[in-house]
Design brief:
two-stranded antiparallel sheet, 265 residues, homodimer, 45% helix, TIM Barrel, alpha/beta
Chain lengths: 265, 265
């Protein structure tokens, strides 16, 4: 594995280059009671997650697990998952959307570190991007800041203004100013190519983009790859994890992204 | 206990009236490794929490537990805590600051319901107040929406505008329009009396206020009680749970709030 004290950005660029993959697999295990379709055959979230981790590992650089799907698992169970992810040559992100004040964010970061993740997502409703980034880096964790989401209602991130500036631009600037590791930007819905160019202009070359919404949610990877090159983690979740052949689908996405990249560059 | 299918607002007003207390105790157990002062004597978060629940129960109507302090506890352990809270005549809130999109929020709500909480907090960075409120109420859970926080950086909630409207006013309006149960409004820092009056004007009589920041964080309860009367949960955390005598301090806060109320009314 990469040097644990190197920044998340550096470690990701190393892993993704050596694996030739910008694919991040969103591993969000829904138990049968939760949803009718596209769910686990039984309540064993851990077994399901371990199987997917092993199957997609040749084709993905990152596993992203959403906190809202693993509530109730113990620190040890999650640490075991992360060890498996690392043994299989990938990095792990907890999609936590942490959104609290200083000392409480620090508590989350303490437990996230103990669980063995490499980075976490942060929701900047309460500001605190600078403070949370410092606390993350003190713990050798990457911080990935929600910047412009693609669900219809998150249009408030575009429509709200600070002065003449859209909130999402302000957030991207705060990320650059505080050396946060990555921004989350949606691939569908209300995110336009102009938004992508605006964000690229602000964050430059040192900040990654994590892009959910490709696959089941219908996002288009082409524009994003055109703007961000390989400073990019493209997340695909349900289309892979609930397919009959997760490895095959993961491989298809890896190839598709690499092909788009080589067409453009 | 109150009728499980009654709204959270109704159940809170019933409990707080019968206990004559608008005190909510913030139960956030920091283990010794996390912080130097004001922490548990050991790593047994559960034992600490159970003891506090029993000690403060004569004086408090609500226990609020922050998710970022109970990461790693199992569904069963948390369900046991909630049973203890309910047996002691209180309601329980998970301070989750949920901040995701539809199906993922639904997953969190599924687990929160299984854990036995009565309500959860919601961070509306991605919008979705309407959708999340519907999902909460389908599960007989209350939803408490971050509206105007008091940490310095959360001033973006005041400074960002939708049209001519501050973001926090827009959020309060969304809460009213969607019948959300409560708004979170800070008691310190950048929350002025005018902000409180603005919020009251929007939310009217049917939405509660959850106010953190009293006690250790130095907030002043008087203005808030003057504006919101008893449609109010005032949260006190560290000043109670890390004191030498949590019961006594809780009783002091209960009395103080009731005295302020009777002075004003």
């Amino acid at each position: 594995m990469t040097d644990k004290h190197a920044s998340f950005v550096k470690r990701y660029l190393e892993v993704s280059r050596s694996k030739n993959s910008i694919l991040c697999v969103g591993l969000d295990p829904a138990v049968p009671e939760q949803r009718k379709e596209n769910v686990l055959a039984n309540n064993d979230r851990l077994a399901f997650m371990k199987q997917i981790i092993k199957e997609v590992s040749p084709f993905a650089s990152v596993i992203k697990i959403n906190r809202q799907y693993i509530i109730g698992l113990t620190n040890e169970q999650i640490a075991d998952l992360n060890k498996l992810i690392h043994r299989n040559g990938m990095l792990s992100i907890i999609d936590h959307k942490l959104s609290d004040i200083g000392s409480t964010n620090a508590s989350a970061i303490y437990w996230i570190k103990k669980e063995g993740f490499d980075a976490f997502t942060f929701s900047p409703f309460a500001g605190n991007i600078g403070e949370a980034t410092k606390e993350a880096h003190k713990n050798d964790l990457g911080i990935i800041v929600l910047t412009l989401m693609s669900n219809p209602e998150s249009s408030i991130q575009k429509e709200t203004k600070i002065g003449n500036k859209s909130l999402y631009i302000y957030i991207a600037e705060e990320c650059r100013r505080n050396n946060s590791d990555a921004c989350v930007v949606g691939a569908t819905g209300n995110v336009t190519n102009i938004d992508l160019l605006n964000i690229k202009k602000v964050v430059g070359e040192n900040i990654l983009l994590l892009v959910p919404g490709v696959g089941a949610q219908g996002g288009d990877a082409e524009n994003i790859i055109q703007v961000f090159g390989k400073n990019l983690m493209i997340n695909v979740g349900r289309s892979i994890i609930y397919s009959d052949n997760p490895a095959e689908i993961a491989e298809n996405f890896q190839r598709q992204f690499n092909k788009l990249y080589s067409n453009i560059m």
